[in-house]
């Protein structure tokens, strides 16, 4: 498993507390890069002004540090493209009953 896949797997441990599904399967993670020992995560949230913003970003930082020793990832929250339920994996859609 390459480093980006390891990071993606670590991010599967971060759940949206309101939906109870991990941020990867929800389709919230748009990009993962590592350049010169700096990890960059581009992601979104389900809605602008999401009250769980700090909790989810904190979860990303904790999971990467705890599982992979990544101490200071750059987590960039973007609003374009907007998230939609179409971004979810089939497993997330089934879990949430969204067909």
Apparent shape: globular
Helical content stands at 25-40%
* N-to-C series of helices and strands: HEEEEHEH
| Helix-strand makeup class | alpha+beta
User: Which spans of ≥5 residues are poorly predicted at pLDDT below 50?
Assistant: none
**Overall radius of gyration:** 13 Å
The whole-number mean of residue pLDDT values reads 94
In whole angstroms, the N-to-C terminal distance is 31 Å
Using DSSP, what is the number of strands? 5
Please give the largest β-sheet. Answer: 3 strands, mixed
What is the percentage of strand-forming residues? 15-25%
- Strand order, biggest sheet? 3-4-5
Q: Total helix count?
A: 3
How would you describe this protein?
The protein is of the alpha+beta class and 99 residues long. It is built from three helices and five strands, in the order αββββαβα. Strands 3-4-5 form a three-stranded mixed β-sheet, with helices on one face. Strand 3 (29-35) and strand 4 form a beta hairpin. Helix 1 packs across helix 2 (53-68). 24% of the residues are buried. The mean pLDDT is 94.
Concise overview:
By secondary structure, this protein is an alpha+beta fold. 32% of the residues lie in helices and 21% in strands.
Secondary-structure blueprint:
Elements: H1 3-11, E1 15-16, E2 21-22, E3 29-35, E4 38-43, H2 53-68, E5 74-77, H3 90-96
Parallel strand pairs: 4-5
Antiparallel strand pairs: 1-2, 3-4
Offer a few descriptive terms.
alpha+beta; 21% strand; 3-stranded mixed beta sheet; single chain; 5 strands; two-stranded antiparallel sheet; 99 residues
